[in-house]
Amino acid sequence: MTEKAPANKMVSNKTYIIVWLCLLALTATTVSVAKLHLVKYAIITAIAIATAKAGLVVNFFMHLKEEHWVLKIMLFVALFALALIILLTFADTWYRYGLG
Amino acid sequence: MTRNNKANDTAIAHHVNYATAKMGMWIFLFTELLFFGGMFLLYSVFRSKYAAEFHTSADELNIYFGTANTVILLTSSTTMALSIALVRKGERRLSMLFQLLTIVLGLVFLGNKYIEWGAHIRAGIYPHSPGLDLMGRGKIIFFSLYYVMTGIHGLHVLVGICVILGMLFFTAKGIVHQGDFVKLENTGLYWHFVDIIWIYLFPLFYLIT
Fold first, then answer.
1. CA-CA distance, B166 to B147, in Å (whole number)?
2. C-alpha span between A60 and B78 (Å, rounded)
3. ipTM greater than cut 0.85
C-alpha cells in the first residue's frame, strides 16, 4: 500500500480500552449518585455525567478530536440549533404556565 | 468499480472521497440529532410540567436492566471502534471477530428490551391499555414517551446491526480493507451516535426516581 493514508491519525487500542473503562466508571457513578436522591440537583448531575460520557464517545470513538475544524463547527451549529429550540420552547412554556 | 480501478486513483482523489463520505455521514447524523432532539424536547417540557408523575413512573422501570443495557451498548461501541482500528492495521480476521461481537452485543441489548417491554405489557402498561388510561395524564405521557423513544432507539439499534452485518460481508469479501475502510468507519459513526442517544435516555427514564 504505497498511497498515503487519507484518514486521520490512528488511535491506539490502549486508548480505546481506557475510554471504555472511563465510560463504565461514569455509568457506575451516575447510578450510585441517583441512589442518593439529590432531589434538586439529581437531573443536573445526571445530564452532566451523560454529557461527559457523550464527550468521550464523540472525541475518541468518533475521532472528533482529530477532525478538521470545519466539521467541529458544523457539529457546534447543530448542537447550538438544538439548544436554541429547547431554550425558546421553555421560554414559551414558562411564560404561559409559570415555572412549576 | 473494481478494486484495481480504485488503486489507480490518486491519493488526492482518495482523500477527497474519504473526507466527503465521512462529512456526508456526519450531516446525516445531524438530521438524526434533530429528530431525536424533538423527542427530547417533548420529554423536557412534559417533565417540567408533570415532575412528580414522571418520578413515580420511573420507579416502575427496572434500573438493573437499564444499567446492564448501558454497559452492553458502551462495550459494543468499544468493540466497534476496535474493529475499525484492526482493519486499518490489516488484521482483517480479528476485525471481523470484533464486528461480530458488536452485533452480538446489539442483539443482547434488544433481547433485554424485549424482556423489559414484555414485563410492562404483562403488567398492563402499554399505550391505551385500560390500566394506563386510569393512571392520569403525567403517567400516560411518561410511558408514551418511554415507548416511542426507546422504541425508535431500538429500531436504530436493529438497523445498525443489519448494517454491521453488511460490513462483515464486505470485510470478508475484501471490499473493506486496510486501504479503504470508510464504509466501516461511517458504520461506526452511526453506531456510536445510537450509543450516545442511549447515554441520555438511560438517566432520563431510569434514574429520575
1. 28
2. 10
3. yes
- pLDDT tens string A27-85: 999 999 888 877 678 888 999 999 999 999 999 999 999 898 999 999 999 999 999 99
* Residue B119 belongs to domain spanning: 13-206
Query: How many separate domains does chain B show?
Result: 1
Give the three-state DSSP class for B177. strand
Q: DSSP code of A99?
A: -
Q: Looking at residue B200, which CATH number applies to its domain? A: 1.20.120.80
A72, closest residue in chain B (CA to CA)? B26
Assigned domain for B149 exists:
yes
Mutate to test the interface with A, among B196, B197, B202, B204 (most CBs of A within 10 A): B196
Maximum Cα interatomic distance, chain A, rounded to a whole number of Å = 65
Give B 27-56 residues with CB within 8 A of chain A. Answer: 27, 30, 33-34, 37, 40-41, 44-45, 48-49, 51
Task: Kindly calculate the radius of gyration of chain B based on its CA atoms and give it in whole angstroms.
Answer: 20
Q: Is B63 within a domain?
A: yes
